[in-house]
Amino acid sequence: MDLPTQLVLGAFTLVTIMLLATAAQRLLNVRFGRLRTFLAALVAYGLARPLLEPIMGALGPVDVEQPPPAAALGLLLLLVMCVVLIPMVILVLAEALVPPGSVPGPLELVRSVRGRVSRSRRYSQITRIAIRHGLGPYLRGRGERLEDRTGKVRLARSLREALDDGGVTFVKLGQVLSTRRDLLPAEFVEELGRLQDQVAPAPWERIEPVLAAELGGPVDEVFAEFCRTPLAAASIGQVHAARLHSGESVVVKVRRPGIRSAVAKDLDIVRRLAATLESRTRWGRSLGLRDLAEGFATAIREELDFRVEAANMAAVTASEGGGVTYPAPIGAMCTERVLVMRRLNGRPVTTASPEQGPRLARDLLDCLLRQILVEGVFHADPHPGNLMLLDDGTLGLLDFGSVGRLDGSVRTALQRFLLAMNRQDPLGVTDALLEVVPRPEDIDEAALERALGQFMARHLASGMDSARMFTDLFKIVSAYGLSIPPEVAAVFRALATLEGTLVRLSPGFDLIGEARAFAGRHLAERISPESVKETVTQELAALLPMLRRLPRRVERIASAAEHGRFTMNVRLLADERDRRFLTGLLHQVLLTVLGATAGVMAVVLLGADGGPQVLPATSLFQLIGYNLLVVSAILVLRVLAAIFRRPRSSDDDGSGGGGGGGVRSAGA
Questions:
Q1: Among the four residues 2, 88, 488, 601, which has the most C-beta atoms within 10 Å?
Q2: Which residues 6+ apart lie within 8 Å of 469 measured at CB?
Q3: Which region ranges are annotated with the description Disordered (predicted)?
């Protein structure tokens, strides 16, 4: 066979395969991926001859050059439908056995392999770090049980060094753990607390190019003075002292070079681990670990962008007060990787004297509760590394990369929750809690009320250590299947972090008592007679237009009822989505009925005797029956394709029946 003939044959084959793919997809009325459709048509093209030969043999010998005139149209139609039926069967079987998304396409497969390789390298790196710091036996569950303080201190130091070497995500984990005195021994809390302000800084050779690129020039030209030795180093950035040409003292926060890719890998690992735990464990589902991981990932990504921190700083500064000072950003010099702000002069808050501790703790608690319950914008990570003891003896609050926001309804519910806790009112606490979290359909409110009553009796009346308060509250939330929204989870995380900070500032600080005092000072006044009167006045002003129209409407209704003209109009299926759903359902029912009818008629005709002989071994009735049988198979496959696709299609809103709206998917 010469080359031109081969090219013509190849082109004919490709066109035939494309026509088969298009016909199969249009008849099924489901948009499959191009690769999946092409492969189905290619397989059908290869199977067409071996599958059609038995059918042609059952019909009897046929003179291909001169077929009987009466059978030409029916035979051609039968052959074409049989050929198109093959890719339809393949696509429906693939849809049922290998749904879109269950097997990645070529590009997704390449990305998946690269991601697995990258994660494997990260897993290997984390394992090497743990082994290098002597944590290998504990990873294998064979670590020795430590009873003496010396062993605990040694293990805590190894854990802190391993977390520090692990990078940003693990340093953040250590910072959170350092505030959980209810979970870890004191030796671990003390050692992990050094991660707050004792992170190893990046060398100046790596920091200088970042500053030059972000600020548009050499450091010595942008600043009048710049100290190359950092004042402090944190998990994400480090801070340098500088002076502007105007003479103003500032601090320059620089993001560590190359941490974005490392954080992305770690966050991917965290999300996968959370998804696995949520799907396989009951406590993971009750806590909503997937949402918590997404919230944690969002917070970390925001902390990596210093422009977000500058905006957060401006938002929180708007509510500044209560003995706590915030730095102000220099907006023109704030970029994604560099944050310039006015300098607060002071020293680490951990150096505060025992006499200063109670006052500082009280000011910090009052500040954060005011931010959460009154302003709605709050610092979400108040650990000791983000606090300074200023020269005037007041607190300075730093690092606004993690800021939470609450809308008015959530703030109001939290206020009622705290007021009811102050009154030790279990019913009020239960109602407020169910306004803060989504209410499950099958919750036992009476049992929840009793559990919260016992919780308050344990923590409010007996003077029990407040370190267990948040843990016990989370246990109640988990036991009753309550799912905490991410913004509310940020509140609890901030309060748990705050509790550890307050204990470091003032050992024995009465968190519960001070919180109840705050409720009495700042929240009770919001339900005073004057505030209630103002609220009632505002509500009446909003209802006044409706109240003015109400008598006329009542008069019209009464008059219509008196004269027998009272009617009610109900619009069924007024929503377009409901109409599409019903139309698609009717289409599927109609196609099912038509397919079944065609199948029954085909069976009847194939079993009928007599009729004109259009082929040597086949009558006209039988030829029509074969065609109807294929038509029935096509209709049934169309319905099955819609049924198999509907539960997994994100674009299907209920309209994706067999005939109407169709079902779309980009999956291969």
A1: 88
A2: 459, 499, 511, 512
A3: 648-668
Q: Which pair of tokens denotes residue 151?
A: 């062993």
Which two structure tokens, joined as six digits, stand for 42?
């290619």
How many CB atoms sit inside 10 A of residue 455's CB? 18
Structure tokens at 492: 């609890």
Tell me, what's the pLDDT at 654? 39
Closest of 251, 257, 211 to residue 237, by C-alpha: 257
Angstrom distance (rounded) from CA 513 to CA 502: 13
Tokens standing for 574? Answer: 């007024």
Distance CA 299, CA 82 (A): 57
Question: Is the Cβ–Cβ distance between 426 and 449 less than 8 Å?
Answer: yes
CB distance 477 to 484 below 8 Å: yes
For residue 287, give every residue at least 6 positions away whose Cβ sits within 8 Å of its Cβ, in sequence order, or none.
Answer: 474, 478, 483, 484
75, 61 in Cβ contact below 8 A? no
Torsion of CA 451, 456, 457, 462, to 10 degrees: 140
Q: Is 318 helix (H, G, I), strand (E, B) or coil?
A: coil
Which residue in 186, 503, 143, 461 sits closest to 357, CA to CA? 503
Q: Which long-range contacts (CB under 8 A, 24 or more apart) does 36-40 make?
A: 36/91, 36/94, 36/100, 36/667, 36/668, 37/87, 37/91, 40/87, 40/90, 40/91, 40/94
Structure tokens at 361: 């703790």
Between helices 69-97 and 3-28, what is the axis angle to 10°? 70
| Coil, helix or strand at residue 100 | strand
Contacts 24+ apart (CB under 8 A), 35-40: 35/105, 35/106, 35/668, 36/91, 36/94, 36/100, 36/667, 36/668, 37/87, 37/91, 40/87, 40/90, 40/91, 40/94
Residue 118 to residue 453: CA distance in whole angstroms: 50
Please state the three-class secondary structure of 552-575 as a single string: HHHHHHHHHHHCCCCCCCCCCCCC
pLDDT of residue 254: 93
Spans of the chain, pLDDT less than 50: 647-668
* pLDDT at residue 106 in the model: 66
Chain centroid, CA 440 distance in Å = 20
CA–CA distance, 78 with 75 (Å, rounded to integer): 5
Give the three-state DSSP class for 295: helix
Q: Quick check: 310 and 334 in contact, CB under 8 A?
A: yes
Strands 663-664 and 30-31: parallel
Amino acid at 457: A
The answer to whether the predicted template modeling score (pTM) of the entire model surpasses 0.85 is no
What is the structure's pLDDT at 5? 79
Q: Strand, coil or helix: what is 346?
A: strand
DSSP 8-state assignment for residue 378: E
Vertex 13 angle, CA 12 and 15, to 5°: 65
The conformation of residue 523, written as its DSSP 8-state character, comes to I
Single-letter amino acid code for the residue at 56: M
**Which residue shows structure tokens 């069924």?**
572
Between CA 6 and CA 12 the distance in angstroms is 10
User: Sign of the C-alpha dihedral, residues 466, 472, 473, 474?
Assistant: positive
pLDDT in tens, 434-448: 888 877 777 888 888
Closest listed residue to residue 341, CA positions, set 375, 316, 319 = 316
